[in-house]
């Protein structure tokens, strides 16, 4: 899922400077799972904003709403009435949701309430860790199902580097060496011989290096055209 963290209240208050009505709009999917921007977090943020604004002697109305998914137009269309009546929207969805809202409501400032951080997994209660960098050319079958792009600090496709010490990365003792994890997993799978094969350089054009990406499903588009 997409992992995010809420921005500091002071940063959000700076964004809404001058507004007299603000909609705090949450998203009930990824950012709710990672406890950054779902209904509960919208309530907490809105309360914190109200308290801070009262302390500053400012009269700002804060309205709360949460939609199922801010990255889908049909869901964000349902809150049109609320969006249209406020000066500013603080979206606690990921960066995709914020942009979907901005595209839908072109005359309305839509500002981010969270920092979209990575694609990750909840390892345990209160701990989310990165798993995928969305490189566009998945090679997990070569690396025991552990991603070298996201989990090696240097994104080495052939590792480990000389900085790996007792299973930890030289970047920080807090970080497990991604390549040590890969080796351990290949041993478990009886596939350690795979380490002998060089993983060829990736074509990074499938990643961000090729500019903004798109996926086109021609058959779906053709079907839609026929229906309309
Ligand atoms: S190889 Fe690429 S697509 Fe596969 S998990 Fe890693 S970053 Fe994600
Ligand atoms: S120590 Fe391991 S995780 Fe860190 S950069 Fe080297 S191979 Fe990657």
Strand content: 15-25%
DSSP helix count?
9
| Order of SSEs | EHEHHEHHEHEEEHEEHH
Unreliable sequence segments = none
Q: Can you list the ligands bound to this structure?
A: iron/sulfur cluster
Name the CATH superfamily classification of the largest domain.
Response regulator
Keywords:
single chain, 228 residues, Rossmann fold, 4-stranded parallel sheet, 3-stranded antiparallel sheet, 33% helix, globular, binds iron/sulfur cluster
Write up this protein.
- Residues 217-228 have a biased composition (Basic and acidic residues).
- Residues 111-204 form the Methylene-tetrahydrofolate reductase C-terminal-like domain.
- InterPro entries: DUF5981 (IPR022026).
- With 228 residues, the chain is an alpha/beta fold.
- It has two domains: 2-118, Rossmann fold; 133-207, no CATH class.
- The chain contains nine helices and nine strands.
- The strands form three sheets. A four-stranded parallel beta sheet has the order 3-2-4-5, with helices on both faces. Strands 1-6-7 form a three-stranded antiparallel beta sheet.
- The longest helix is centred in the first third of the chain and has 17 residues, at 39-55.
- The mean pLDDT is 97.
- One iron/sulfur cluster (SF4) binds next to helix 8.
Secondary structure elements and pairings:
Elements: E1 2-6, H1 9-15, E2 21-27, H2 30-33, H3 39-55, E3 61-67, H4 73-77, H5 80-85, E4 88-91, H6 95-104, E5 110-112, E6 114-124, E7 127-132, H7 148-151, E8 168-169, E9 172-176, H8 178-189, H9 218-227
Parallel strand pairs: 2-3, 2-4, 4-5
Antiparallel strand pairs: 1-6, 6-7, 8-9
């Amino acid at each position: 899922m997409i992992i995010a963290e809420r921005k500091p209240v002071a940063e959000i208050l700076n964004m809404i400077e001058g507004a007299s009505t603000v909609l705090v709009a949450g998203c009930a999917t990824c950012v709710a799972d990672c406890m950054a921007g779902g209904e509960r977090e919208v309530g907490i943020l809105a309360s914190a904003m109200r308290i801070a604004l009262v302390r500053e002697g400012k009269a700002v109305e804060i309205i709360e709403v949460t939609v199922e998914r801010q990255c889908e137009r049909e869901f964000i269309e349902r809150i049109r009435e609320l969006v249209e009546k406020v000066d500013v929207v603080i979206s606690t969805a990921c960066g995709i949701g914020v942009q979907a809202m901005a595209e839908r409501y072109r005359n309305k400032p839509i500002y981010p309430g969270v920092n979209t951080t990575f694609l990750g997994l909840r390892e345990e209660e209160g701990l989310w860790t990165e798993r995928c960098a969305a490189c566009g050319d998945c090679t997990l079958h070569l690396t025991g199902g552990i991603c070298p792009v996201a989990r090696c600090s240097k994104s080495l496709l052939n590792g480990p580097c000389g900085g790996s010490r007792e299973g930890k990365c030289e970047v920080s003792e807090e970080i497990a060496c991604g390549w040590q994890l890969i080796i351990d997993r290949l041993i478990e799978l009886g596939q350690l011989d795979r380490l002998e094969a060089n993983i060829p350089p990736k074509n990074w054009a499938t990643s961000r290096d090729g500019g903004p990406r798109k996926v086109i499903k021609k058959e779906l588009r053709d079907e839609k055209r026929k229906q309309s």
